[in-house]
Every structure is written in structure tokens, then in C-alpha cells.
Specification:
This protein has no helices and 28 strands. Mean pLDDT is 82; it is low at 1-26 and 325-336. The protein has 3 domains: 9-127, Immunoglobulins (Immunoglobulin-like), CATH 2.60.40; 143-240, no CATH class; 252-357, Lipocalin, CATH 2.40.128. Helices cover 0% and strands 44% of the residues. Residues 1-25 form the signal peptide. Keywords: Signal. Residues 65-74, 81-90 have a biased composition (Polar residues). Residues 43-90 are annotated as: Disordered.
């Protein structure tokens, strides 16, 4: 994961001296800082070994003479600058750029105003290439999509939907494999070892992503967008997924559209499946539309095979379940009433996406 894209992680640090004073009073510069709007300490952050990840801090002014010292420390973590002192009589900002050695580390951010007590935040940070997470938990059969994952480039939003598939107690896949999401026995062809610590909730997927398992699904940092030394596309994978049983006939109409400001060549894709095994795939581009028709079959682990072109014929289709994950493997109904996840080589940058159901009237 290499590249030059950067995102500033905003850390708003509000310094307040006790209860809110009258408008004419000067806040107590000796009180401990109170931090608000800081990055979530409950989730890990990916860093790089050479490409620094900037943490920007905003320090509100006290209205009177005061100085605030910001420091960042951590084993095998490099902060630039490690310590800085700012005049915070008025609002001030500070930036700490972090890099680290491969592996999992802890960073302590300390903010101290004048001679008063300090306020600290402790973060877990990770760099690919080190010893794996010490976790032996089992996520077999758990599958989620991230319908609203996004990153930003040059101030523009880039939607990059994603999915994660935990195949057994050792192996996982990220993204949109096809045809079908088959099993793994070695770290090849998109198969990634994963480690899960039920005690802390931390999850590591290969050297691709670090995250934490939340009640709604895993939060991962590192896989989106592809190609960065550290990643700016953190996402919560909160849409549970299931399979239709092999040989099942499905009725439904779904549509994907390009929802970002970094437009690709494909603007929209519509998938129509009928219970008599007929299908229609319509791909819309600036230059016009391409329609693919024929018959389909559903195989194991979401393998969707189309009988004829023009277009790809070996895809992957999975069904969105309700937020409890009800239905499990093979539990999706014959009517496509919810969203689906489709792996298609022409679909967005990760070659897959989440398709929303389209009412029959449309």
C-alpha cells in the first residue's frame, strides 16, 4: 500500500476551566484541558513507516495568557514534532505527524495547559508487515458489506463500497471475489489470514486492514482506497450478507449508480432476475448502454453464472440480510426485496458494489 494521498484527522481540543463563566470572566488557565471532537480511541488507526499520517489539533483560546503543550509518545512510534508549545490565549492549532514500525503499537497524546493537570488520550495504531495480532477468536460464516464507505481526494468524495467475508476460523476475503466466494487453504488468490481477539474486539485481516468488531459489524481501516501507504477510507461494514441456496430461482430488480464525485466510466448498472431463470444486465455509460440477456444459474457461495454475453458471465451475488443477520447461509428468500451485493469486473474501482432494489413500477 503505497501512494501520496493524505487526509488530516481532525482532533478538536476544547479547553474549558470548570463551569461556564460569565462572558466577562477569564477562564482558569490552570484547569485541566477538556478534549472534545477527538478521534475515537475505541478504534485502531493505520499508520505508515515513511508516509506520515497527520493528526491536526484545534485548541480553543482561554481569553487570557496561557500556553498549552502537546506531546505524542509511543513505543516504535515517531511523532513530528514530539512536543510543541503554543500560545492559547486565542484559538490555536497544532499538527502531529505520526509514523511507526510494522506491528501494533500504542500512542499517548498528552495535552497540558500551563502548570495544570494534563489530559491524555490513548490510541492503538498499526502498520502492516509486523507480527500479527494475538487473537484466536472465530468469525466463521460472518459476512458484511460497507454500503457507505467513502474516501476523499482533492476535496472530492469517492464512494468505494466494500465487503468482508470470514470463511472459517483462519481465512477471510476482502472486496468482491468471483465467481463465488470460495474457501481458502493458503494465502493466495485473495485469501487472507485473519486474527480476532474477542477480549479487545480487535480484528486484523492479513496485511490489508486493522479494525474492531462492533455490534453492528466490523470497523476496518486500511483497505480503502487501495494504493496508499496509510489509508484514509475507514469504513463500518454494517450490512450482513447471506447466500441463496444453490439452484434457487430469484425474482428481483436492482440498480447500482455512481454516487461519487470521481466518476468512472460506468455510470449505472441494472440487474434483473426472473424465476424462470432469465436475466438482464444493463450497463450504462456516457456513450450509451450495453444490454446482456440470457439465462442464469446460482451456485454455491454466491456463484452467479450467465449463459451469454456481451459481458462477463462469472459473477458473485449475495443477499442483504436484516441487521440481525437473520437468515444465515441459504436463508435469503426467493424475492429480492432488499439490496444485493454483486461482484462484477466493470463495477466501480473494486469491481463490485451494493445494488439497491428497484420497484416494479420503475
Amino acid at each position: 500500500m503505497r501512494g501520496g494521498r493524505r487526509v488530516l484527522v481532525a482532533v478538536a481540543v476544547l479547553l474549558i476551566g470548570g463551569a461556564l463563566p460569565p462572558a466577562t470572566a477569564v477562564p482558569d488557565a490552570r484547569a485541566a484541558p477538556v478534549l472534545t471532537g477527538a478521534p475515537d480511541t475505541a478504534v485502531p488507526w493505520e499508520l505508515g513507516t515513511s508516509q506520515p499520517r497527520p493528526f491536526r489539533l484545534t485548541l480553543s483560546g482561554t481569553g487570557g495568557p496561557s500556553r498549552t503543550t502537546v506531546s505524542a509518545t509511543g513505543d516504535q512510534v515517531r511523532a513530528s514534532p514530539p512536543t510543541q508549545t503554543l500560545d492559547t490565549s486565542d484559538t490555536a492549532s497544532a499538527t502531529v505527524e505520526l509514523t511507526a514500525d510494522p506491528g501494533l503499537h500504542t500512542v499517548v497524546l498528552t495535552v497540558q495547559r500551563d502548570t495544570g493537570p494534563s489530559t491524555t488520550l490513548t490510541y492503538t495504531v498499526w502498520v502492516p508487515g509486523g507480527a500479527p495480532l494475538d487473537g484466536h477468536g472465530d468469525l466463521t460464516g460472518r459476512r458484511w458489506a460497507a454500503p457507505d464507505a467513502a474516501s476523499h481526494s482533492d476535496g472530492r468524495r469517492d464512494r468505494s463500497q466494500d465487503a468482508v467475508w470470514f470463511l472459517d476460523d483462519r481465512w477471510a476475503r476482502l472486496g468482491f471475489p468471483r465467481p463465488g466466494v470460495g474457501g481458502c487453504t493458503a494465502a493466495t488468490a485473495g485469501c487472507l489470514r485473519y486474527w480476532y481477539d474477542p477480549g479487545t474486539g480487535l480484528v486484523q485481516v492479513g496485511d490489508e486492514a486493522i479494525g474492531v468488531l462492533r455490534p453492528e459489524g466490523p470497523y476496518l481501516d486500511g483497505h480503502l482506497p487501495r494504493g496508499d501507504d496509510w489509508e484514509d477510507g475507514m469504513a463500518t461494514y454494517d450490512q450482513p450478507l447471506g447466500w441463496w441456496r444453490a439452484g434457487r430461482r430469484v425474482e428481483g430488480r436492482w440498480r447500482w449508480h455512481d454516487g461519487d464525485e470521481l466518476s468512472g466510466s460506468l455510470q449505472a448498472l441494472t440487474l434483473v432476475l426472473h424465476r424462470d431463470a432469465r436475466f438482464v444486465v444493463r450497463r450504462s455509460r456516457d456513450a450509451g448502454s450495453v444490454v446482456q440477456r440470457g439465462r442464469y444459474t446460482l451456485g454455491r457461495s454466491g456463484a452467479l453464472r450467465l449463459s451469454r454475453g456481451p459481458g462477463p458471465r462469472a459473477l458473485t451475488l449475495s443477499a442483504c440480510l436484516d441487521t440481525s443477520g437473520a437468515g444465515g447461509s441459504g436463508g435469503a428468500g426467493s424475492k429480492g426485496e432488499g439490496c444485493v451485493v454483486l461482484a462484477h469486473p466493470g463495477l466501480d474501482r473494486l469491481e463490485g458494489g451494493v445494488l439497491d432494489p428497484v420497484p416494479r413500477s420503475r
